[in-house]
Amino acid sequence: MFLQKLESVKIISRLLRLLIAPIAVFSFYAHIAHAEDIEPWDPVPIPAPTPAATPAPILERVESQKDQIFEGAKNKPPFSLEAAKQCEQELKERRISFSVKDQISDEKGCIVERPLSITQLSGGIALSSEMTLRCEVVLAMDDWTKNIVRPSAKLHLEQDITSLKTSTSYHCRTRNNKPGGKISEHGFANGVDITGFELADETVINVSSSADTLIDKQISVSNFRAAVRAGACAYFTTVLGPGTNATHQDHFHFDLAYRKSGYRLCE
Predict the structure, then answer these.
(1) Partners of residue 183 on adjacent β-strands
(2) Residues 38-77: pLDDT tens digits?
(3) Are residues 16 and 64 in the same domain?
(4) Is there a single domain that holds both residue 108 and residue 151?
(5) Distance between CA atoms of 165 and 76, rounded to whole angstroms?
(6) Number of domains the chain is built from
(7) Poorest-pLDDT segment among 26-35, 142-151, 200-209
(8) Is residue 160 domain-shared with residue 136, that is, in the same domain?
(9) Residue 85 belongs to what domain range?
């Protein structure tokens, strides 16, 4: 009896193996077929090399080079066409002859929106050379000449002046010609250099004492120089001259430098 049962179990076991084998084979091939439809694993892409920096446009490079020579017009005086025309009307009322020139715009950064050409101030006081200046500078020169220079000449030298010996007006350069510095006020026609004064008897009083010819009136001449120099501080925001530095040993430099704080430099 026991042997019959054992034989039955063996038979059933064989039948099960026969049934399971085809299913296993089918499952194996079905897995392979499905695996072919799976996308292969993609490795993390290697970052592309950083592109080389694009060279700056030529215009930008030129601007950079320009800034190495001139700091630009950071110190440029403000401009208003309405104010300029009002100033010119004042010149006409004082009977100062002038002409309006074309705008000056230098590639280095110097600019003068409405420059004036002038050779004479009010009262017939001549300028020894044609000057290119902003209108406001012309007015300041005229005020200084009328209110300071002429009375001082009569007080200390007992005669009037007929001419101002002028030097530089507009000139596009840096301050004291130093590379990399700010633009000089001359670069905005905002400054003027004066080397001397001609009297009614044609005697010339130079700003530099080294060229004095009036030895017998040396004290009077020195007082005159001191008076006109000090008086200029009432009309200009910058007054420089002999003793300031080596570049101003032979002339007065006056300008209307625009300073936000409003202070004046008188040396």
Answers:
(1) 174
(2) 344 444 444 455 444 444 333 333 333 333 344 455 678 8
(3) no
(4) yes
(5) 26
(6) 2
(7) 26-35
(8) yes
(9) 58-266
